[in-house]
Amino acid sequence: MTVTVEQFLAWRILPRLMMFVMTVMYIRVIEWGMSLEDLSTQQSAMISVCSGSMTGAFAVWLSHEQ
């Protein structure tokens, strides 16, 4: 059984792997933020940026998934 490049790309492994990695990163950032006793402005800004990037990436991923 041989797998052609077209078949491999049709499985969309890379986008799914990237979404999995981003989801793990997002969960870890949220866990880190909840473990802090007092958030600084910079720390809350980083959490907001990660949340915004996850929202955007999820929207792009859903629009391309068929």
Notable traits:
single chain; 66 residues; mainly alpha; 3 helices; 80% helix; elongated
Structural class: mainly alpha
Low-confidence stretches: none
The topology string of helices and strands comes to: HHH
Radius of gyration: 17 Å
Instruction: Tell me the number of helical segments per DSSP (H or I, 4 or more residues long).
Output: 3
Measured by DSSP, the beta-strand proportion falls in: under 5%
Q: Please tally the β strands and state the result.
A: 0
Helix content: over 70%
Overall pLDDT score: 88
Spatial shape: elongated
**End-to-end separation:** 26 Å
Describe the structure.
With 66 residues, the chain is mainly α. It is built from three helices and no strands. α2 runs antiparallel to α3. The mean pLDDT is 88.
Task: State the gist of this model.
By secondary structure, the protein is mainly alpha-helical.
Give the SSE map:
Elements: H1 5-10, H2 13-35, H3 41-64
